[in-house]
Write a structure and sequence with these properties.
heterodimer, A: alpha+beta, 4-stranded mixed beta sheet, about 10% strand, globular, B: alpha+beta, 10 helices, 4 strands, EC 2.5.1.18 (chain A), Glutathione-S-Trfase_C-like (chain A)
Chain lengths: ~220, ~230
């Protein structure tokens, strides 16, 4: 990787983690080169840019790589600080934003995966856990327009890519996000009115096709 | 006068240690409230209802939890010592390596201590690789933070002090001078920093604590408090 000027994002189309970076870049109006990675045959560039984890997304800015989606989003926010600020300015609110983004990181993807990977009682347990997670997040959102308050912020960016997975979670585990967490469902619709989100998120039906493909791959009936 | 800064934690926890060292580096006056993790206080459950864990920083009645989030808060909320770098890229790197310590180094090392047979061999392999990668990040510097300790050094506090104790109790030698001369030198330097020394429990006490819990930890693979 030469010290080429510019921004490149190594990513995978349906990855909610990659989408966080894409949304942040779009909110900031940053021009960048998108490179789709084949995760079964990772490119030389990816292996060089993220030798330790070999995972996407990786942001390469002027030849320097940054990995881990939430770290990438904070980096984007700090470098392109002139517009669309994602993190609050006060230390306590910043700590809260990091806490909820971390909570989403620790809980949503993992629990979501168990919804389509497991059956029977184990799946029911995962379903209950997902409902608890959604309701906790709903309590945190409250009556605010976004998690960030009036402005779209860090926690919104962290969570919104998972909204295109709601259809898959609902279909696999037989429940309704709108039924258990109506404010989250409304928030998801509001976020889709933003160009950065609408242009980035995968179609929920395509995500479901991808989940079905994974189910076959992992031998889940 | 009641302190406006309280830290709920334990001296035995490397996560609580991170928060405590951060406060000492900033010379913040704080009250350390020792938690009995076998009987968590109402205060802890009130201030950290979701995870119910230490450390919890309470500043003017508002709580901040998750050790690395606490350290970033202390860096931002109080003047003085710079725990994180000022350059955005260097800051991102610090966060990446702190995360690496939490996600790769610590779990592999912990499981190496409390498993046996083929399983242990597997974890030891992972731990060795993770330690080698971590050591390479020192790159001729005194500390991960450069000339003085920073975010990654605090995150690696467990490596500096607890790893030696755990492997002694477990009867293995993973982090040793022969295999990791640079990391071991760093560990000594880290533990010699005043703010760190003030935060550490007597080594003999911690060895005795882990030795007394050894069988239970081996069975559950989790820390044991009672």
């Amino acid at each position: 990787m030469a010290s080429e000027k510019g921004v490149m994002l190594l990513d995978f189309w349906v990855s909610p983690f990659g989408q966080r970076a894409r949304i942040a870049l779009a909110e900031k109006g940053v021009q960048y080169e998108y490179k789709e990675e084949n995760l079964t045959e990772k490119s030389e560039l990816l292996l060089k840019a993220n030798p330790v984890h070999k995972k996407i997304p990786v942001l390469i800015h002027d030849g320097k790589p940054v990995c881990e989606s939430l770290i990438i989003v904070e980096y984007i926010d700090e470098v392109w600080s002139d517009k669309a600020t994602l993190m609050p300015s006060a230390p306590y609110q910043r700590a809260q934003a990091r806490f909820w983004a971390d909570f989403i990181d620790k809980k949503v993807y993992d629990c979501g995966s168990r919804l389509w990977k497991l059956k029977g009682e184990e799946q029911q347990a995962a379903k209950k856990e997902m409902i608890d997670i959604l309701q906790l997040l709903e309590a945190q959102l409250g009556d605010k327009k976004y998690f960030g308050g009036d402005s779209f912020g860090f926690v919104d960016v962290a969570f919104v890519p998972f909204t295109s997975w709601f259809y898959s979670y609902e279909t696999c585990a037989n429940f309704s996000v709108e039924g258990v967490a109506p404010k989250i469902a409304q928030w998801a619709k509001r976020c889709m009115e933003r160009e950065s989100v609408a242009k980035t998120l995968s179609d929920p039906k395509k995500v479901y096709e991808f989940v079905c493909f994974l189910k076959k791959k992992f031998g889940v009936e | 006068m009641a302190e406006t800064v309280k830290l709920l934690g334990t001296k035995g926890s490397p996560y609580s240690h991170r928060a405590e060292v951060a406060l000492r580096l900033k010379e913040v006056n704080f009250e350390f409230l020792h938690e009995d993790l076998a009987h968590k206080s109402d205060m802890l459950l009130r201030y950290n209802p979701i995870h119910k864990k230490i450390p919890v920083l309470v500043h003017e009645e508002k709580s901040i939890v998750e050790s690395l989030i606490v350290v970033e808060y202390v860096h931002e909320a109080f003047n003085g010592y710079a725990i994180l770098p000022s350059d955005p890229y260097e800051r991102a790197m610090a966060r990446i390596w702190a995360r690496y310590i939490d996600e790769k180094v610590i779990p592999a090392f912990w499981m190496s201590c409390w498993t046996d047979g083929e399983m242990q061999k597997g974890f030891i392999g992972q731990a060795k690789e993770a330690l080698t990668i971590l050591e390479s990040q020192l790159k001729g510097k005194k500390f991960f933070g450069g000339d003085s300790i920073g975010f990654v050094d605090l995150a690696a506090g467990m490596v500096a002090f607890w790893f030696g104790i755990l492997q002694e109790v477990a009867g293995i030698s993973l982090l040793n001078e022969e295999d990791y001369p640079v990391l071991c030198r760093w560990a000594d330097d880290y533990c010699s920093v005043e703010a760190v020394k003030e935060s550490l429990l007597d080594r003999k006490l911690l060895v005795a604590h882990f030795a007394s819990k050894k069988e239970k930890i081996f069975a559950t693979k989790a820390p044991v408090y009672d």
